[in-house]
């Protein structure tokens, strides 16, 4: 067990739903502050960037970053920035994923998708610009001016770039696009989701932890193990929700995986076994947190939230 002090922040005392709302509100305000103003030239692109990033989403990745940050006593100001960076990558991925050349969807977060509200070229540029802004945020001087912190910032940039690129999210998306109509076995499905969805959740956890005290190698490995299981759990639950919850509740088109002949945990295992698999992943994720004792409480609560979420 590493000798990390308890986090200093007052938010540790809050009940989980209040803590979650606090983080979500904080991220909304931070993104609004950090995104280019809607009226700045080129105004249409900036409006579309704000449309794709604000007023929506569960902010699951920022929640993971803040929960991991509470584990290491990370400063809320740093956590705001790294969480926003990860959320911008997520927002970019949704905009590009919804394009006609990919998933071709018209509904996201209960509203028309970005290319429907604006147009395809704008949506493409929105994704590009959100991605660039994410890395610009990680390079900010107020994230760390001393040399030790600068080395940490470089580590953060490397982690997020790896998680977003062809060895992470974009690679997972490529496997996904190539898998339509095919049957994947469980290891193939797991690899696809570990990259497409899991890599960014894993990066959120590790970036959040990097905002605080240094973890021992053992603690870092345990946290990474947790993040991998939690990322996969998030995806299995997503597959279950896609075929059990309505479009109105999800805020995106329900049942699309089956219509598009996408391999999912439900198509592979059936609904009951997919639910059992989710329970098993949840247990494995929590086991990995044992080393952190009470300091892992937020991550434990967040794991329960993603397991039982309804949208
Ligand atoms: C285009 C490079 C590129 C990648 C796209 C994220 C992604 C990869 C595709 C989205 C399609 C999808 C349904 C992925 C499964 C899980 C997932 C990422 C769901 C959406 O994330 P939530 O539930 O969304 O966190 P909100 O709206 O709450 O932010």
TrEMBL record:
Q: What are its GO biological-process terms? A: terpenoid biosynthetic process
**Top-rank taxon:** Bacteria
Its Enzyme Commission number?
2.5.1.1, 2.5.1.10
**Record's Gene3D superfamilies?**
Farnesyl Diphosphate Synthase
Q: Which GO terms describe its cellular component?
A: cytoplasm
Matching PANTHER family: FARNESYL DIPHOSPHATE SYNTHASE (PTHR43281:SF1)
What's the protein name?
Geranyltranstransferase
In its UniProt entry, the species of origin is given as Candidatus Propionivibrio aalborgensis
The UniProt gene name for this protein comes to: ispA
